[in-house]
Amino acid sequence: MSYFIAVIMITSVICYGQGLANASIEVEGSKLRYIDALFLCASAMTTTGLTTVNLGDLTAFQQSIFLVLMLVGSIVFVSMFTVIVRL
User: Fold this and answer.
1) What does each of the 87 residues of the chain score in pLDDT, given as a tens digit?
2) Whole-prediction pTM
3) Residue in 78, 86, 84 with CA at minimum distance from that of residue 46
4) Cα separation of 50 and 22, whole Å?
5) Which neighbouring-strand residues pair with 27?
6) What is the DSSP string of 4-72?
7) What is the CA radius of gyration of the chain?
8) Residue 55, C-beta contacts closer than 8 angstroms, at least 6 positions apart
């Protein structure tokens, strides 16, 4: 559980910071809010696929963060991580 929480919190800050760095890029007419970045990262990490904004409006870097989150949050990776920790 702490693995999921830590990864989601770290990547949501990175995703939100990337949105602030690219001030010219706006999501649906406004900048990406932190609560939206947190929700998107949690959704990607748990592979539920829920979104609050149009993902096409985000930068390629932000979209790649979601891709990595989907990979490290998948059942295969989490199960492998659990086995390695128990060893």
Assistant:
1) 888 999 999 999 999 998 777 765 565 666 788 999 999 999 999 999 899 888 888 889 999 999 999 999 988 888 888 899 888
2) 0.82
3) 78
4) 24
5) 30
6) HHHHHHHHHHHHHHHHHH-TT--BTTBPPPHHHHHHHHHHHHTT----SS-GGGS-HHHHHHHHHHHHH
7) 14
8) 40, 63, 66
